[in-house]
Amino acid sequence: MNHTSDTTATGNGGAFGPEQAAALLDQTTQQAHRKFQPSPPWLLVTRAVMVLAALGAIWLSVRGQHPYRGPTAADIPVLVAFIVVNFAATVAVRRHATAGVSGRSRFSQGEITVLVLAFAAAVVAMAGLRAAGVDFATYPTSVLVVPGLAWTVLMAARANWRGLATGLAIVVIGIVGAFAGPAGAWAVAAAGLCVMLLGSATAIAWQQRA
Amino acid sequence: MNDDGLDPLIHVPTRLKIVATLAALPDGDTLSFTRLQDMLGLTPGNLIIQLRKLEEADYISSEKTRNGSAQKTTVTLTRCGRKALGAYTQALRDLLGGL
């Protein structure tokens, strides 16, 4: 990457040529996009690897169960650790990227409430359906559908097309998982979320280079 | 405009960096003075001088808010500033035959 120092300037543009200006504009724009990015590609790739490892490990442990009994006691800490680390890293990186920024790019209190309620509603609905003996309520992918839809609607309202594609991908993973059986749904979640995260990382990296 | 069609107000490294950084935010978003200063590595005095010049041209707007004893200044690129940067970028493209 080219670097153009401020020392090349005279203050009135005298020694600052168009080539230097173009390089500085390009460099500054790319740096700003990187610094303002709440979901940097490196974080998404890390999450993709983590989700593949965590959910893939659970799939390996449940795929031989006949009948299906769900994740073993040894799997639960892995799942909880994955969720906690993922959540903490996401919040920390987002907070750093959006420090000092205010306006539409930040989620409003109402939007955060909608997302939290959507996730809570999905968990409660799945628990209710499970108690009623509905099979797919025990699938790990089923819980993704409602929050995925909420995210899709939110991103559509913001005209954020990459975010909308992510939401739709989550919904599709949830639906495909319903056809994969209880054990297979873990594999669908692992592979689907990994591909979705890698896709997002690629799209953001591409956008930052453009 | 300069002879080469470049806006002299933007065609200064420090101001170009300020405008390009603010343009990386979505339209209407504001950035705190301290974050902008941190990102560009400028002294407060230098940043204030450059921001004032850009504000006089209506390329940016700033707002001061007071929260208790602390005062916070936020800046945003105006529509006019975004348009000026677009015209500046186009002028560079024309001069260099593709950016």
Describe this entry's structure for a reader.
Chain A has helices at residues 18-36, 41-62, 75-97, 109-131, 145-157, 161-178, 181-209, and one strand at 101-102. Chain A has 210 residues and is mostly helical. Mean pLDDT of chain A is 87; it is low at 1-13. Chain B has 99 residues and is α+β, with helices and mostly antiparallel strands. Chain B has a single domain (13-96), classed as Winged helix-like DNA-binding domain superfamily/Winged helix DNA-binding domain (Arc Repressor Mutant, subunit A, Orthogonal Bundle), CATH 1.10.10. Helices cover 51% and strands 19% of the residues of chain B. Chain B has four helices and three strands; from the N terminus they run αβααββα. Chain B has a three-stranded antiparallel beta sheet. Chain B is elongated. The interface between A and B is medium-sized, with 31 and 32 residues. Strand 1 of chain A pairs antiparallel with strand 1 of chain B, so a sheet runs across the interface.
The secondary-structure class of chain B comes to alpha+beta
The profile of the biggest β sheet of chain A is: none
CATH H-level superfamily title of chain B: Winged helix-like DNA-binding domain superfamily/Winged helix DNA-binding domain
CATH architectural label of chain B = Orthogonal Bundle
Count of helical stretches of chain A: 7
Poorly predicted parts of chain B: none
Rg of chain B over CA atoms, rounded to whole Å, is 14 Å
Question: What tags apply to this protein structure?
Answer:
heterodimer; A: 210 residues; mainly alpha; B: 99 residues; alpha+beta; Arc Repressor Mutant, subunit A; 4 helices; 3 strands; elongated
Q: How are the secondary structure elements laid out?
A:
The complex is a heterodimer of chains A (210) and B (99).
Chain A: H1 18-36, H2 41-62, H3 75-97, E1 101-102, H4 109-131, H5 145-157, H6 161-178, H7 181-209
Helix pairs in contact in A: 2-3, 2-7, 4-5, 5-6, 6-7
Chain B: H1 13-23, E1 30-32, H2 33-40, H3 44-56, E2 60-67, E3 70-77, H4 79-96
Antiparallel strand pairs in B: 1-3, 2-3
